Amino acid sequence: MFVPVIAGLGTAQPPSASQDELWEGFFSRHFSGTTRSLAQRIFANSGVTRRQAAVNPLLEDVSDWPTERRMRRYQVEALPLGKEAVGRALTAAGLSAGDIGLFIVCSCTGYATPGLDILLARDLGMAADTQRMVIGHMGCYAALPGLGAASDFVTARGRPALLLCAELTSLHIQPSSARVDTQQIVSHALFSDAAVAAVVVPGGSGYALREVTAVTDTSTADHMTWDVTDAGFRMGLSPKVPQVLSKHVRGLVDDLLARHGVTSSEVDGWAVHPGGPRILNVVERELALPPLGLAASRATLDEHGNCSSPTVLLILDRLGRATPSARRIVMLAFGPGLTLYAALLDRQD
């Protein structure tokens, strides 16, 4: 049986701006009245120092754009960003686009047909028999079911698979309003843009994907939403999300590790999606992690914000570069459902 291995990662991000620049140059005017002081506190305590934006609000205000215009712009901006990430991942894996048997694209911030999967397959020169899969509207955890699908394909077919997660959250700034809406303030303070690609191959050197697993608490489905409106996509983010995570994350991780005869003390790295500072604090507490256990997640939040689906892959890339000796890594991501996904990776040489 073929062992699926992550043989290459490639990242691509648009230009960045500091959180202070974004606040002073745009959001301090976007929020008004009593909302402004609340928004300023949330921005200051977001855990974010810099963020990236393909459509920078300091240069271009999209908040009053209709959804159709935002979707057209998504294709313009996402295509070169995705091409850059994929190119780097293929180079890292020592493969060409023609070697790929399955191409998976995850995104919840833009839709069109033909989509990124078809346009990138065309522009990069993928084979005509390359299979494609689009994973949409799963949000921040989409990279893990994407890796799961890639892993299953590699195991069954013995051919390489390619995963691309590309998100342009900057296209979905909502219209300004005098009404206090804490959920919108939080989302505008956290989210960022990025594209990350991962090449999964049958065997070889890299991180072997041992298992991808999940748990969904459907009783809390309304706690995290992403609604398509006439003014772009609108985030719903309940303050109860960390509380729900605290109920499920320990059991999910313990069960995953137990199936492989591993304890949490034997995990060398934790790639935990930084949905926000409170979420990281909850995971750290529930898993009884050491003080620096989530250092890579916090550093990614600080430097890049919450990029939705690519974020956990950004953290994995950071861990691989900062701690190349790490043998075992657990990935965790959370999103609508309310859903928790986890994956266990083992380095093999």
How would you explain this protein's 3D organization?
By secondary structure, the chain is an alpha+beta fold. It folds into two domains: 4-202, Thiolase/Chalcone synthase (Peroxisomal Thiolase, Chain A, domain 1, 3-Layer(aba) Sandwich); 206-348, Thiolase/Chalcone synthase (Peroxisomal Thiolase, Chain A, domain 1). The protein has helices at 19-30, 34-44, 67-93, 116-124, 143-157, 182-190, 241-259, 277-286, 295-304, 311-322, and strands at 4-12, 16-18, 50-52, 102-107, 131-136, 161-168, 193-202, 206-216, 224-229, 232-237, 269-272, 328-335, 339-348. The strands form three sheets. Strands 5-4-6-7-1-8-13-12-11 form a nine-stranded mixed sheet, sandwiched between helices. The protein has a two-stranded antiparallel sheet with strand order 2-3. α1 (19-30) runs antiparallel to α2 (34-44), α2 runs parallel beside α6 and α3 packs across α4.
Number of helical regions: 10
Give the CATH superfamily of the largest domain. Answer: Thiolase/Chalcone synthase
| Oligomeric state of the chains in view | single chain
Helix-residue proportion: 25-40%
Spatial arrangement of strands, main beta sheet: 5-4-6-7-1-8-13-12-11
Q: Radius of gyration, Cα only, in angstroms?
A: 19 Å
**How many domains make up the 3D coordinates?**
2
How far apart are the termini?
A: 18 Å
What about the largest sheet?
9 strands, mixed
Protein name: Type III polyketide synthase
Pfam family, one: Chal_sti_synt_C
Domain Chalcone/stilbene synthase N-terminal: 9-200
Domain Chalcone/stilbene synthase C-terminal: 220-345
